[in-house]
User: Fold these one by one.
Assistant:
Number 1:
Amino acid sequence: MGSLKCNFDDGEFLCDTFPEGFIWGMGTASYQCEGAWDKDGKGMNIWDTFVRTMPEKIQDRSTGDVALDSYHHYKQDVQMLKSIGANTYRFSLSWARIFPNGRPDSVNQAGVDYYNNLINELLANGIQPMVTLYHWDLPQSLQDIGGWLNEEIVEIYGEYARFCFQQFGDRVQRWTTINEPFISGMMGYYYCNFAPCINDPEEGPYKYVHNQLKAHAQAYRIYEAEFKKKYNGVVGISLDTSSYFPFDKNSPEDAKAANRCFVFRLGWMLHPLYHGKYPQEMRELIDARSKNEGREVSRLPDFDDHWSKKLKGTLDFIGVNFYNAELVRGKDDGVIAPEWGLADGIPFFDSRLPGWNRDMNAYRTHDMNWVRCGAPWQDFTPTGIRECIKWISDNYGNPTMMVTETGCSGVDDKINDEQRKEFFKLSINAVLKSIKVDGCNVVGYSGWSLLDVWEWMSGYTIGFGIVHVDKSSPNMTRSLKESGKYLGTIFRNNGFPLSK
Ligand code: GBH
């Protein structure tokens, strides 16, 4: 194994290795890679429905029906992981493949077998499975009763989680309950470009996240009471965030506004999971606005005593998903770049939109000089992850964290993906500094994504993979990109040791 040459030229690159036992991996999600949407008894989920009822919402009108057909080619995926020296694979379970109607009475043995086979194949190759229970593909029959806005979902999700712990818990040590409540809530209920596409921008995301937090706690408590002693695994959640920097470094107002963005993005979830209630700053701002709007009840719900207690202390680790840095102003003085990150023509980051965006009273923009990645919403800001990790550490007592996603979008993704290679180099070095310089407790790094998976509303127009998949070849041939080869060197070296 050749060592990486450390580059001292910029005086900033840190040559050092990660703590022993560091977790290295890459991730995928069921709907984005499995395909086999109607095979072997799988039930419909909200994405199966969405791509059929609103095909125009997907940029290239593609679907995840076949995707990369990991359902039939998972062994190739495992070999790719092995070839880069990964010790972990982060993947999600398709709820409707396990319970076609969302509930235990409908259990589909073929679905359970598929995940058993995948898990066993991983372990046979020295790779630990890390399972996401929910990465956005809700069974359609649960959406039919109101989905995440119906409180009943909390119990039902708990039953699903219990079943998965029972079936796979003897071999799966690391679980995340839910992937990115913020993104899925905002895209599904605010911008309406994700399933289930229900337009309720002012209240929808708040209700959605509220029930997801309860569902998380429900699953955590079930694991704690029924499985922890036996299996001694860990349960966390994956939270998405941008890094928020003050636009003007000398402006205390901008600094406060940047902090408020972190509170609204991460504190929204972390405060209930640590303290049993939403952050005070959020509470006050949203309560006041709701009142001004003539509402009798705040748009931000509340937890009763029972739930407050149940929520508190339900994180063994925090999964951090990071894609973007943003600059924040305390005042709207016209510096917002209106063309930035368009979602259906609506600037995704526009702080003037109602609901969450406006509630937080901060004006977000980017630097026009930043290099861009492939997706219109992504600037090339890999080192920004350090800021997020530090914010969590400073505000929640330096908890155990793991990077569960970060990556670089590309267009016409090539085997020779120089920008992505550079992204991972700088990103992983930033995480190394989080540990070695900032003293943060980061135990692992799982990049996004293993394969060029189907990218939701962008279809196949952009990719994040370190593995290219030839979708026209009969066995969906996987080949490692340059970024993947490079990651392999980092993984095997456990970082960036000084070259001898
Ligand atoms: C993650 O989402 C997901 O967990 C993962 O499934 C996904 O493949 C990956 O990131 C890459 O997107 O076009 O302006 O509406 C979080 C990140 C979701 C953020 C899509 C940007 C589109 C912004 N992204 N979103 S916009």
Note: The longest strand covers residues 234-246.
Number 2:
Amino acid sequence: MTNQRIAVIPGDGIGPEVARVGVRILEKLASKHGLGLSFEWFDFGADRFLRDGTILPAGFMETLRRDYAAIYFGAVGDPRVPSNEHAKGILLAMRFELDLYINLRPCLLFDDRLSPLKGKGRRELQFTVLRENTEGLYTGTGGTFKKGTPDEVAQEVEVNTRKGVERIIEAAFTFARTAGLRKVCMADKANVLLHGHGLWRRVFAEVSRRYDGIAAKAMYVDALAMDLIRAPEQYQVIVTNNLFGDIVTDLGAALTGGLGIAASGNIHPGRVSLFEPVHGSAPDIAGQGKANPLAMALSGAMMLEHLGHGAAARELNAAVEAQVREGAHTPDLVTQLGGPAATTEQVGQELLARLQG
Ligand code: ATP
């Protein structure tokens, strides 16, 4: 069995609390399924930045590319670093420099009681969003002019490349085909943003012709936002740009139980990729044992799947689902599911116990 090295970056706030639980669970699965995974911890985050100025050491990206199979990431962000420069230098740098162009976010409801929508339960809330993760309005292209004066001009330029648009749309259709799904929706604002989103429209039409048997629908993102509340069952796979993806996936998280159980992958197929919970470092609850570790665990399941360990991933997903339906909950889920509140560690222990053997 070849060894797959996992770089664990727990980060700030609740990141280390949920990462501890996540790694313990993955270690158990690795030993049970004979997966040959090894976990190596890195202390990048606010403490390290404030101590010695390190954001990421020189050459770290190259090391990740060369030596690691995946990155298991907690969260970054700390009130002691108001500029957030360390967080940008860690997470955004990895997304861009490792070219992790697919932000994959499943929005799957585990329990009807978590649905905020009347009459919509597990059967209706089952969609996955692929958000473009390296272009759009997030490249920092633009600038300000006459800053601080009444004549100030501020511009952010949306970057859409043919290559970038095509590969994320292609990824959405490939994901649908692999998962046996039959519908892909692309969300844009092509009625207003004629150039960039016109490109998305053209490429979507072109790529969809290569996927027989998958229904392709292009729609405006405002219409999609309404429809996801009104008729979420119409959606299986949604592909969209960086900004709209940010918003649509938060909507998806709210529809399926909240940030405590929302997982994501930042993926470049065939290359080192990064798996992290959707939530941030949540400084308001850090150090109190209130953080829900299930988003981190589910991100671990996505990582296992990506590394080719489907059986272990399925076992972990099933254990999390059972935990949501029958187990103890951190305060974020108690509001919706009832029962006394459990700590991060208690939920982690129960989850661990659900993994047989
Ligand atoms: P970012 O800008 O990095 O997304 P943020 O502070 O805006 O960070 P989060 O850190 O995700 O957002 O936290 C938003 C709120 O959601 C927090 O105040 C916290 O109460 C709650 N929250 C986030 N993650 C969890 C979790 N794992 N368990 C319980 N509550 C959580």
Note: Residues 1-101+268-357 form a domain with the Isopropylmalate Dehydrogenase fold (CATH 3.40.718.10).
